[in-house]
Amino acid sequence: MPLTPTAELETFANPAADRDYTIRMQIPEFTCLCPRTGQPDFATLDLEYVPDRLCVELKSLKLYIWSFRDRGAYHEAVTNEIADHLQATLQTRFLRLAARFNVRGGIYTTVVAERRQSG
Question: Phi and psi at residue 103, in whole multiples of 5°?
Fold first, then answer.
């Protein structure tokens, strides 16, 4: 059992790389810290992607998401950082990450980042 988070994402070969299909994941336990107050922010991440040659390995994704727990980050920045890292690692045909943050000060925030393979 891993005792620490990691910034590394592991992959495996797409078993059906000759066709388009969508992988959807819901990650309900995302946490980071508010960079202004240091208080925890909680979110559910909805990840959706159409893989090309690679798929993300789930345990490494869990440990990667855990790595944000003690980091201060604005909602917009952290959502885009995760989407960028996933896209750089997987080179997906399409990727959408929606981060639905819990209420803070009476405001619910959802940030949606999309990435597409060129061409």
Answer: -60, 140
